[in-house]
Each structure stands twice: as C-alpha cells, then as structure tokens.
Amino acid sequence: MVSFQGVGKSYGAVRAVADLHLELHPGETVALLGPNGAGKSSTLDLLLGLRTPDTGTVSLFGTTPQRAIEQGRVGAMLQSGGLMDGVKVRELVRLARDLHPHGYPVDQILAGAGITEIADRMVGKLSGGQAQRVRFALATAGANDLIVLDEPTTGMDVSSRQTFWGAMRRQADEGRTVLFATHYLEEADAIADRVIVLHRGRVLADGTSAEIKARAGARRISFDLAGPADRAALEALPHLTTLSVSNAGSGSTVRIQSRAADATVHALYGLGLYPRNLEVSGLGLEQAFIALTTAEEAAR
Ligand SMILES: Nc1ncnc2c1ncn2[C@@H]1O[C@H](COP(=O)(O)OP(=O)(O)OP(=O)(O)O)[C@@H](O)[C@H]1O
Ligand SMILES: [Mg+2]
Q: Residue 256: which H helix or E strand, with range?
C-alpha cells in the first residue's frame, strides 16, 4: 500500500534520502527511528507528496501520493505544521472534518484525540502538548487508511504521551496503517509492530523491536565487587564494547556491554574475581539503537 522504489532525495550537497526501498502493508504500525538528520521527515514528506524524489518512485495505494491524498485516504501530522491561531479548537477540527471526503462527527474526533475538555479554547493559547493533540485530531478527522505522524509526542509530558499512545493504538486497532517517526524508543517498543531504523538516508535495520535488539547483538553484564575494580583488567575482557565502573563505599559496581556475553563472563571468572549479583540481560531498544548507529558511524 505504500511503496518506495529506489527513492533518492538531495538538498544541494546533502543526501537526505538515498536509494530507499520500502514497502508498508495494510494494518501495520511502523516506527521510523534515526538520529537527527537521518532523513525521517524527508521520507515522510516524500510519502505525502510534499517533496518530489530526484530518483525512484513513491506510490500510495497504487497511485501517486497526491491522488491518494485527494481521495482522503491519508491523514498526516507534520513536524513543523503551523496551526491556525485565531479560532477555537472545535472550529478548527470542524474545518478539517468538512475538508475531508469522509469526515467523522466533530465530537467523535475531539474525544478520539482526548481534547474534548479544551474544545472551546483558542488555538493560539494552547500549550505545546495540547497543540500536538489538536494536530493529531486534524490528522484523524476522517476515515483514513493511512496515518503519518512526524514526532507526534514531542513536547508531551509522560502521562499525555501514554494517553496519546492509547489514541494511536485505537487507530491501528481499527485497521489503519500507522507510520510514525519518533525519538522516544520506548514509544516505538510499546506501539510499533515494525521498527525501521534510518541512518544517513538509508535503512539500517528493519524488523520487529525484538529483531532489532537481537541484531544489535550485544548483552549487558552487571555485577558488584567487594573491593575496588581493576579497570585495566576489565577493559581487557574479550568482546567488551563498553565498560563503566562506579564505586560505592569500599565496593564497586561494574556494567559491561559485550558482543559475546558467555565468553566475557567466562574470562571474568578467569581474572580470579568474585562477582556478586551477576546479571546478564539483553539490550533495550534504546541501547540497540545506539549500538547500531554508532557501529555504522565507526564503519564509515
Ligand atoms: N529543505 C531543506 N533544505 C536543505 N536541507 C534539508 C532540507 N530539509 C532537510 N534537509 C537536510 O536533510 C537531512 C535530513 O533531514 P530530515 O529533516 O529528513 O531529518 P530527520 O531524520 O527528520 O531529523 P530530525 O530527527 O532532526 O527531525 C538533514 O541533513 C537536513 O539538514
Ligand atoms: Mg524530522
């Protein structure tokens, strides 16, 4: 339903998107991750037909992005979209509904975005997080097949974010395809059934959150020592990628990331140390993401 075939986009000397191949399937909830400047917004803009690719083609529902949008099949929430200021929230939502070929009742849209209480406020006086919710309401004002959200929860507090995820999940449960860019890896982990990591305009990893974590390969090892830690000896452990030592009283706590935890732990005992509270665990999505993107930078 969404297809990028060899899509490239440069701004002068900056290659924002490079030879991108991507297929999204109906009903998927997909998170787009990547460091600042990775090409997430550019990809979404290309998808929405707001920018034209230099090379390759983007198609939406078998047609051009422009036509798919005219047909009311796509709802979008952009990173830098301004909101009309001098109107009330309800009026703005009604306008979006009226412009949509298959608009929903206004009260339903307000409730779905959790903004019923602020419906009579002036748009120009909303807080940042409230404005984000209004943007979401505009993106969900009608029956869309695809919703595209660029960093939708930026500026929201923790509890607003949780509520917002509920609203996003309901969209997905109703069978819509949801594509969102985010810097909150916890958000990707919690909502997306597919995670795409972009880096310098290319797909660095594409899979479930569990697959991305496994791909990063590393494991965390942590333990306590009764006395001070011998940093140099620990640094020489095999397959170690990071080491941190913190001292607490006469003892110390050591945290290690390793590409081959079994071998690292084996060598640890070989040092004649008596690690207590030894824990070996997989990486969270956040660490996996950092491991993948820094490895990619190092390989350049
Ligand atoms: N209109 C533009 N003119 C020139 N360069 C641009 C333009 N838009 C984006 N870029 C450049 O293209 C690259 C990709 O930008 P993009 O906005 O797609 O990144 P992003 O992944 O969305 O980043 P962020 O996480 O900061 O939102 C960056 O290097 C950016 O500076
Ligand atoms: Mg962006």
A: strand 251-258
d(CA 32, ligand 1 centre) in Å:
14
Q: Name the residue of 20, 42, 52 to mutate for ligand 1: max ligand atoms within 8 A of Cβ.
A: 42
pLDDT tens sequence across 240-282: 989 999 988 899 999 998 988 899 999 999 998 889 999 998 8
Q: Which residues of 118-136 are buried (b: 16+ CB within 10 A; e: fewer)?
A: bbebebeebeebbbbbbbb
pTM over 0.85: no
CB within 6 Å of ligand 1 — which residues?
Answer: 11, 14, 16, 34, 36-42, 79
Distance 89 CA to ligand 1 centre (A): 30
